[in-house]
Design goal:
10% strand
Length: 220
């Protein structure tokens, strides 16, 4: 059974991928699309990312990997694979904490981003946290196209172990009790409650999805 994993940035995607590889075994491939949000036809209208000219899914080796892999994961919008009918999963995180984590991580990439994609850099690069939060808001809403109803399962980062256990039951696979953390945010910065409260104002739609996902996990 193919499984589509919509990996929203800074929601534990590398950890989930490692767990899926371990649970499905070495004979099952995990195909990771690299930053497909830059190449997808459904790209964010706010950015356009005109610096990226090629949709890598159309390269021959990518097409072959897609066809032979059991799990497809990447930074793409859910609508990209919705037509396939394959089950989809994703993970959500407290919107404010996700934005802060993404901002810290991206701060280490600005020089490379400026060289590779100047339009993208000029929009979100080298910004203060608050400016970044205003520009790069509602990311989870965008990836999920405003609804989590089409997902077989939606995990919650703040309840990661519980989410993994419930996902395992749904998929009929066993995950290890010891969960390795992959790609944690480095150089963490303490952000005041007042700043977080201000950031939350720009994450209204993401909180709608996040709260629905919390309710859904409770019933799972």
């Amino acid at each position: 059974m193919k499984l589509i994993y919509v990996h929203i940035p800074k929601t534990g995607g590398n950890t989930v991928a490692a767990l899926l590889r371990g649970a499905y075994g070495k004979n099952h491939n995990v195909f990771r699309e690299s930053h497909d949000m830059h190449n997808d036809h459904n790209v964010m209208s706010a950015t356009g990312h005109p610096d990226y000219k090629v949709n890598h899914m159309y390269l021959p080796w990518k097409k072959q990997r897609y066809e032979t892999s059991d799990i497809i994961m990447g930074h793409f919008k859910k609508t990209k694979y919705l037509h396939t009918g394959y089950p989809m999963i994703t993970w959500l995180r407290d919107p404010v904490e996700r934005v802060i984590s993404n901002w810290i991580q991206q701060g280490t990439k600005w020089p490379k981003a400026k060289a590779k994609a100047p339009t993208y850099y000029n929009l979100v690069g080298d910004k203060t946290l608050m400016t970044y939060a205003k520009v790069w808001n509602q990311a989870q809403w965008w990836y999920c196209d405003g609804s989590i109803d089409d997902f077989l399962f939606v995990g919650i980062c703040e309840r990661f172990n519980e989410s993994i256990e419930k996902l395992g039951k749904i998929l009929g696979v066993g995950f290890p009790k010891e969960i390795p953390r992959k790609n944690p945010t480095k150089n963490k910065i303490e952000i005041s409650k007042s700043v977080k409260k201000e950031i939350a104002k720009y994450q209204e739609k993401d909180y709608i999805l996040y709260n629905k996902a919390l309710e859904r996990l409770d019933k799972c």
